[in-house]
UniProtKB/TrEMBL annotation:
This is Glutaredoxin. It holds the Pfam family Glrx-like. It comes from the Bacteria. InterPro entries: Glutaredoxin-like, Thioredoxin-like_sf. The keyword Membrane applies. The chain crosses the membrane at residues 20-43, 55-73. Keywords: Membrane, Transmembrane, Transmembrane helix.
Length: 174
């Protein structure tokens, strides 16, 4: 069994945010359900006096809890989390990015790949419009990332899959 150690752990506040969001969402849904049951069938057990006196307030509280819980759970994790593979060093012999002029996904892919330049060789950018054969091959699916002669990504570079590819490839021995 191998022990792969990655520095992708979420910050301490990330876990707390998820817990508070989940609890808020569940409490809000439970409170709303209780309000609907009370309005439809009535409740056979006694509730605090404020339950009967301030029903609109309880309804607003349930929607507020649902909204806050949903908002907290929809927040993206902090992008400051630093990822490094378990073994440092360059992987692969060559990386080719097939692009075309005016392709925003190509620009995004290049920027993403540049973020991993510590683990990748220099990225060779090739404009497919300059070569009819490449244009026929990759016309509708740029950007295309070819690593060591094998097409790894078409249309968009998935960062999670790129990390897995880097982690799963041993570094070059210097």
């Amino acid at each position: 069994m191998t022990d792969i150690k990655q520095k992708t752990t979420a910050p301490a506040g990330e876990h707390s945010r998820r817990v508070v969001g989940t609890v808020g969402l569940y409490l809000g849904v439970a409170l709303l359900g209780l309000l609907l049951i009370h309005a439809t069938y009535g409740i056979s057990w006694s509730m605090p006096r404020s339950w009967y006196r301030d029903q609109p307030l309880w309804g607003a509280l349930s929607f507020t809890l649902i909204g806050i819980g949903w908002w907290l759970l929809r927040q993206r994790p902090a992008s400051e989390t630093v990822w490094t593979p378990s073994k440092p060093g360059l992987r692969f012999n060559n990386v080719t990015l097939y692009t075309r002029v005016g392709c925003h996904l190509c620009d995004d892919s290049l920027e993403l790949l540049e973020g991993y330049r510590s683990y990748l060789p220099p990225i060779e950018e090739v404009d497919i419009d300059a070569d009819p054969q490449l244009q026929g091959q990759f016309d509708t699916c740029v950007p295309v990332v070819e690593i060591d002669g094998k097409v790894r990504f078409r249309g968009k570079v998935d960062e999670v899959l790129l990390r897995r590819l880097i982690e799963g490839t041993p570094p070059h021995v210097m």
